[in-house]
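Hi support team,

I've been running sequence recovery on a batch of backbones for a student project. Most finish fine, but this one hangs at about 90% for roughly twenty minutes before it completes. I'm not sure whether the input is malformed or the queue is just slow. I've pasted the structure tokens below so you can try to reproduce it. Let me know if you need the job ID as well.

Thanks,
M.K.
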């Protein structure tokens, strides 16, 4: 066994000892390194041998690392050629090939932020948003004033629904490029999505909240049930009492006035010849809500509707469920919002 190899193993064991001494490893990891050092000492017969003075294996590695190598003009020219090839492949939608070219450019010139940002754009096209964010961060480490890197990082965060980080990225991008319209649009979108995802304050339940009244009244099955509902004596009595407490119905509806104590349930259902304004029965195909709500203001309509809905749930829950089901069948599901688009897809 060569002496050089043995001394390299000694230097490596010394590095492992320093790692344990630094205390940054967990107890289990430190025990594993202890076992590894014993195995290396036995295999290479290095027990009791110390490394030469000034031998620091980790420092030697850093000094020899490719990242420490100065980029020559030849390397910069070759890197620029790879970047141009990658730009051409981006226009052809060959994003995998573009990534290969940008990677070669990065290996030739590690201090050029543009190569990382261009590769981030290619990763975004392939929906590899995690790698796109990593490339943007590296581009910003090299050049903290690179606005396009912030913009592309914001797009990646917005696409993966990390709205807070997207907003932060776009804010920094706009500080550097205040007139960029796509940054403003996407930041507003991120803000709207963040606000909509926040839990709302509890509000009082509204039995008619979200109802499309026009759609409801155009449903024949719903209207048929509504006509039967309005002809029900108990419902007519309930609604007449409710209307009396609201200041009376509009003229011509046949419902009792506020101070009319002489009209009873029987007279409502069986009007006599002496009654001046009897309520005609609903005609087939007629809108039973038109005569009910004619002339009332909207607030009164909503208050009356809510009380009717509450009473209906108590007196006839099956009919209430049926009405709700008929209405929901007529609703159309809204399409989900479209994801943001990167309007600035041209590489540098």
């Amino acid at each position: 066994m060569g002496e050089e190899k043995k001394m390299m193993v000694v230097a490596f064991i010394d590095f492992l000892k320093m790692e344990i001494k630094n205390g940054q490893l967990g107890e289990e990891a430190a025990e594993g390194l202890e076992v590894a050092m014993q195995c290396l000492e036995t295999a290479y017969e290095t027990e009791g041998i110390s490394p030469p003075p000034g031998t620091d294996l980790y420092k030697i590695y850093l000094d020899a690392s490719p990242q420490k190598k100065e980029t020559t003009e030849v390397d910069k020219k070759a890197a620029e050629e790879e970047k141009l090839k990658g730009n051409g492949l981006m226009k052809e939608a060959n994003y995998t090939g573009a990534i290969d070219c940008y990677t070669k450019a990065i290996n030739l010139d590690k201090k050029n932020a543009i190569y990382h940002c261009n590769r981030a754009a290619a990763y975004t096209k392939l929906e590899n948003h995690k790698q796109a964010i990593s490339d943007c961060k590296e581009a910003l480490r090299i050049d903290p004033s690179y606005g396009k890197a912030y913009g592309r990082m914001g797009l990646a965060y917005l696409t993966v629904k990390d709205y807070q980080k997207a907003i932060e990225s776009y804010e920094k991008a706009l500080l550097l490029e205040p007139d960029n319209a796509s940054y403003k649009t996407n930041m507003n979108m991120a803000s709207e999505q963040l606000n909509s995802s926040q839990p709302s304050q509890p509000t009082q339940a509204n039995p008619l909240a979200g109802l499309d009244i026009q759609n409801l009244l155009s449903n024949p099955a719903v209207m048929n049930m509504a006509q039967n509902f309005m002809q029900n004596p108990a419902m007519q009595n309930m609604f007449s009492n409710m209307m009396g407490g609201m200041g009376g119905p509009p003229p011509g509806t046949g419902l009792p006035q506020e101070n009319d104590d002489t009209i009873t349930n029987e007279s409502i259902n069986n009007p006599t010849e002496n009654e001046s304004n009897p309520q005609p029965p609903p005609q087939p195909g007629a809108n039973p809500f038109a005569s009910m709500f004619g002339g009332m203001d909207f607030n009164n309509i909503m208050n009356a509707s809510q009380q009717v809905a509450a009473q209906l749930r108590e007196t006839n829950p099956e009919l209430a469920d049926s009405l709700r089901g008929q209405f929901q069948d007529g609703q159309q599901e809204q399409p989900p919002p479209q994801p943001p688009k990167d309007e600035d897809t041209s590489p540098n």
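--
Follow-up from support: It reproduced on our side and the slowdown came from queue contention, not your input. Confidence is low (pLDDT under 50) at residues 246-278, 289-296, 330-336. No action needed from you.
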